[in-house]
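I am writing to request your help with a piece of structural work I have in hand. Here, with my thanks, is the record as I have it:
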Amino acid sequence: MLQLDKLSEAARLERTDFTHDGSDLLAHLPLEMLERDKTAYRNSDILLLTRDLRDLMVSCYFQAVRRICVYRAPISSFIRDPRCGAEKVLTFYAIWHDARHTPRSFTALSYEEMHEDIAAAAIKAARWIGLSPEPNDIKRAITFASFDNMRRMEETGAFGSQRMAPGNKQDPESFKTRRGKVGGYRDYLSEEDIAYLDEVEARLGNPFMEAHARAMRAKHAKENPVR
């Protein structure tokens, strides 16, 4: 199930795969080494998954420390590290925002969108991959991919893959399905760390989250017109 390329081909869809595009924690590349030239993707349709910087930093930290064991320092050091921290994430986003017209098509989908309206997000992703799902298909997919079901499958080893297995079954922070929460970063970051991330984001920008925030404001205004 995790072999997306083989799964898409078996379903007679255009071959689909995922990549960290050089930003992964295992590669541990400094931000200066991120590839800015995206011409390799000029014949591809790109779906870029994004997330709030603060929540993303916490999630990446536990991935690095509790799952793949490539980092040992505290989270305050992690978010400031040029190989994995906030500046690298925002540089990666900026590179892709600048290059968004290079691929054949480009779509961004945020973690927050999924939480706000999972059905709409699922339809958006399905259409991107070339599917035209019926409403019942979407409902079944959402039920199957719910956080609780994914957690049960991870606990029982149903995926048959180390990529979807806890680093330590006794440590809830080592699960791939760790919390599935928006805004949970406040449980892990100090006020000083949050202020640092806010400053970095204000300085470097975060175009995908800015676009999401504009869309949410527009949606709110439409649903709550001023009378």
In short: The mean pLDDT is 89. DSSP finds ten helices and two strands in the chain. Residues 21-131+183-223 form one domain. The CA atoms of residues 76 and 168 lie 23 Å apart.
